[in-house]
From TrEMBL:
Signal sequence region: 1-22
One of the GO biological process terms: rejection of self pollen
Domain of life: Eukaryota
Family: Belongs to the plant self-incompatibility (S1) protein family.
Protein name per its UniProtKB record: S-protein homolog
GO-annotated cellular components: extracellular region
Species assigned in the record: Phaseolus coccineus
Keywords: Secreted, Self-incompatibility, Signal
Compartmental location: Secreted
Amino acid sequence: MSVSIRNFFLLWLLVQPSTSHASGKKTTVIVTNKLQGGRDLLVHCESADDDLGVQHLHPNASFSWSFRINFFISTLFHCSFQWESVLHKFVIYNARKDADKCVLCSWIVKEDGPCLVSPGTKDDCYSWDSLEER
Ligand SMILES: *[C@@H]1O[C@H](CO)[C@@H](O)[C@H](O)[C@H]1NC(C)=O
């Protein structure tokens, strides 16, 4: 009995129609270097499934990636932003919190922290989750 329930669950996982959060639509995150003084920014973002590698961003340059939120709505990307030998860490996307907030999540990175920007609204700025000396 328990085996068949388990099989049923696995089958359901395979054929289940997408949930509203993960309705086949892709989420895109954009990160733009807005550090002062023409400084370059090294960005390294990872999820449990993907390592996006180290991206070297010149001033005002952007890096973006797209993904589908996983079935469990547990998709989480954390990034480190490096300049002047300090890693500034931040969870840039957490599906549990952000799935309803943005489909196109555009961040600008400043010294004090990243800001989520959307047209016609005030920038939504955060401070770094943690810092790490290199
Ligand atoms: C980056 O963009 C801002 C305007 O958004 C501009 O004032 C600045 O000169 C640009 N910096 C570089 C290095 O292009």
